Amino acid sequence: MEIPYFVFKSVTAVVLVIVVVVVVVVVVVVVVVVVVVVVVVVVVVVVVVVVVVVVVVVVVVVVVVVGSMMNKIIMEFS
């Protein structure tokens, strides 16, 4: 018994629709994953930059404070 052409055509159409939907879902998932990874990388870079800036500021403040204290001590003893 042969499969009628319209049945074959409709089955092919359904299979094509399923394939297109799967491909679209996979592409959307990949795009979402890439966006999430980019956002995470940007956040990590921003956090690292902020930490480096804070450390540099703290070091500069400590050096200035210690330097001025040493200056006062040297002035008192001389």
UniProtKB/TrEMBL annotation:
<keyword id="KW-1133">Transmembrane helix</keyword>
<keyword id="KW-0812">Transmembrane</keyword>
<protein>
    <recommendedName>
        <fullName>ABC transmembrane type-1 domain-containing protein</fullName>
    </recommendedName>
</protein>
<feature type="transmembrane region" description="Helical">
    <location>
        <begin position="12"/>
        <end position="36"/>
    </location>
</feature>
<feature type="transmembrane region" description="Helical">
    <location>
        <begin position="42"/>
        <end position="66"/>
    </location>
</feature>
<keyword id="KW-0472">Membrane</keyword>
